[in-house]
Automatic annotation (TrEMBL):
Originating organism: Paenibacillus agricola
UniProt keyword Lyase, yes or no: yes
Protein name: Methylglyoxal synthase
Function comment: Catalyzes the formation of methylglyoxal from dihydroxyacetone phosphate.
Catalytic activities: dihydroxyacetone phosphate = methylglyoxal + phosphate
UniProt keyword Lyase, yes or no: yes
Cited PANTHER family: METHYLGLYOXAL SYNTHASE
Span of domain MGS-like: 1-138
This protein's UniProt keywords: Lyase
Length: 138
């Protein structure tokens, strides 16, 4: 599965610790992240991550493009609700795209843990059907 990892500045340590805790689950999937978040995770784990640009520089939009084309299966986006973000419209657009496309998106550590445990159990197998029967593909 394709999984995106995004964390605002004050949530990056929390994201890194979370990924370390579930590294054995994540190692079986294709990982994407915004710039600094992905780099920090790779420095602390053995995971390989495709890093997009930093969120404020367009990374949220790059991930959003994958969501819009149904190429993303799950997003963990640890947002900082107490800090204004200069790219708030991009964040809202990404969350809206997740709702439109039916992509599970955790915005806090509690929801992220539930989704990762479900991922580990195989509860997202239905996403394979979405990819298998994309229009124009067989």
């Amino acid at each position: 599965m394709n999984i995106a990892l995004i964390a605002h500045d004050r949530k990056k340590d929390e994201m890194v610790n979370f990924i370390i805790a579930y590294e054995t689950v994540f190692e079986n999937h294709l990982l994407y992240a915004t710039g600094t978040t992905g780099t920090r995770i790779m420095e602390s784990t053995k995971l390989q991550i495709h890093c997009f640009m930093s969120g404020p520089l367009g990374g949220d939009q790059q991930i959003g493009a994958m969501v819009a084309t149904n190429e993303m299966d799950l997003i963990i986006f640890l947002r900082d609700p107490l800090m204004a973000q200069p790219h708030e419209p991009d964040i809202i657009a990404l969350l809206r795209l997740c709702d439109v496309q039916g992509i599970p998106c955790a915005t806090n550590i509690a929801t992220a843990e539930i989704l990762v445990k479900a991922l580990d159990r195989g509860d997202f197998a239905w996403r394979e059907l979405v990819h298998k029967y994309k229009p124009g593909e067989m």
